[in-house]
Amino acid sequence: MRPFGWMLLPVMLCFPALAGAERPPFTMEAGVHRNVVLAPLGGSAFRLVLPAVSVERPSEDRAILRPGGDGRVVLQIMPEGGTGHRTGAVLHFGQAPLVMERRDGRVALAGSLKALSLPLTDDPDARHGTIAFQRMTFRLILPSASSPTIQEATISFQAQAMRVDPALLTVAMPGKPVVFSTVSLRAQAMLQIPHPLADIGQLSRSVRQVDLADAGADLSGNPIAARGTAVFGEDDAARLDGLLSLGNFAALLQTLMSGDRFAPEQIMPLALVAGGLGRMTEDGTLTFRVRTAEDGTLIINDRPATLPSIR
C-alpha cells in the first residue's frame, strides 16, 4: 500500500454508504438484520460483514446502526490480483451506534470505536495486532457516490488512552502494550476513485493528496506531533512537505525501554538514525523538517537524506 494510504483505508473501514445514496443503509427498514454484507463502492475491493445489526430510521435521510453482539464488524478485502476475500481488519464498536446522515450529495458518519484489530502479515491465518481505546470518536464526511473526478474526504477523530500492540509498530517485536494518554488527528484526503473497485490495490492507488493538518500524541508525558502534505503523482511517487517533532527525545527513549516494553537493542538503531537526521532544540525536542526536492530527493532538515534499513 502506498505511503499514507492507511489514512484512507480507515475511512473505508467504517463507511458503508459511499456506494451511493440509494444503497444500504438508507434503503433498509428499521429492525434487526442478520448477516448483512455492505459493499461500500460496489465492485469487490472490500466489504463489511455484520453478523447482526439493529437499524433505526428516524428519517429518510438518517440511519442509526447498532452492531449486534459484542459490536464486532469484519472488513473483508480482495487482495490485488486475488480471487477471494480475506479479513483485512476487525472493528470493535461495542455498544456504540453508528449515526449516518445524507445531505446535499454528501454522507456523514459519526461513531465511536473501542478497538481495531489488524493482521500482522498478508497470510490469511496471520495473528492480529490490536489498537484499543478508552474512547475514540470519529466523524467522516464523504461524497455519496463514486466519480471519475477528484473527490474530497474529510476525516477527524479524537482518541483517549490508546493502547497499541507493539507488533504493529516499526520495531515489530513482542512486548508490553505502548500506552498513549492522548491521541488526536485532523486530516483530509483527496482521491480519485475508479468504479467499480476490483481490489484493494486500486483503492490505495486512488489517493492523490493527503493533508495532515494536525496529528499529536502523548506518550507518558513525551509529546509527539506532526503536520504536512503528501501529493502523489501518476507514477505513485510522493511529494512530501511536513514537520515531525519528538518532544523530550531522551526521555522518550527511556520510556520506550522502560518496563520491558522494548529492549535497548531494538530501540538504539532507531535512536541513532533519528539523532543523525534530526535537529535538537534547547528544550530537548528532536525535529525533522521533511520535504521532497523537484528531482525526488528526500530532504530532511535541509540535507539530502537516504533512510537506512534498520532491519
State the end-to-end distance: 19 Å
Poorly predicted runs of 5 or more residues: 1-22
Question: How many DSSP H or I helices?
Answer: 4
> Proportion of β residues?
over 45%
SSE string: HEEEEEEEEEEHEEEHHEEEE
Helix-residue proportion: 10-25%
Task: Report the average pLDDT across residues.
Answer: 78
Largest sheet, in brief, is: 6 strands, antiparallel, barrel
Q: Count the strands?
A: 17
Structural class: mainly beta
Label the overall shape: globular
Biggest sheet: strands side by side, in what order? 2-3-6-7-5-4
* Gyration radius from CA atoms, angstroms: 20 Å
Compact overview of the structure:
The chain is mainly beta and 311 residues long. The chain is 12% helix and 49% strand.
Overview of the molecule:
It is a single chain. The chain has 311 residues and is mainly beta. The chain has a six-stranded antiparallel β-barrel with strand order 2-3-6-7-5-4. A hairpin with a 2-residue loop joins strand 6 (98-103) and strand 7 (106-119). It has four helices and 17 strands.
Lay out the secondary structure.
Layout: H1 5-13, E1 31-38, E2 46-59, E3 62-67, E4 72-77, E5 86-92, E6 98-103, E7 106-119, E8 128-143, E9 151-164, E10 178-191, H2 200-205, E11 207-219, E12 222-232, E13 238-246, H3 249-257, H4 264-277, E14 279-280, E15 286-292, E16 298-300, E17 303-304
Antiparallel strand pairs: 1-2, 2-3, 2-4, 3-6, 4-5, 5-7, 6-7, 7-8, 8-9, 9-10, 10-11, 11-12, 12-13, 13-15, 14-15, 15-16, 16-17
